[in-house]
Amino acid sequence: MHAFDVLGDPVRRRILELLAEGEQTSGAVTEVIRAEFGISQPAVSQHLRVLRDNGFATVRPDGARRLYAVDDTALREADEWLSRFRRFWAPRLAAMATEVARGKRQRRLAEEGNDR
What we know:
With 116 residues, the chain is α+β, with helices and mostly antiparallel strands. The chain has helices at residues 3-7, 10-20, 26-37, 41-53, 72-82, 86-115, and strands at residues 24-25, 57-62, 65-70. The protein has a three-stranded antiparallel beta sheet with strand order 1-3-2. The longest helix is centred in the last third of the chain and has 30 residues, at 86-115.
């Protein structure tokens, strides 16, 4: 399965967001996903398996629990594929960062002027 096919599913993207916060038990992931998406525990397990089988997540046993974490292998591959397109948005992001910094500087100067 291609990385973007895996990431195309909103449930799998949400699971990755949860795992990005740190290692999670399958029960904790299931609880959040069931509450947010209303899907069954076996369905969540299937999504975890897809993430694991495609290099997005790792699992390690801890007694009776299974702990999941992000595996950056497939994410690095997706990032590498995206790298050829960065030229389309990188200058705009740099310009936006400049404008944000300029706005912060202007607010700081205005505040300093009001303090006098």
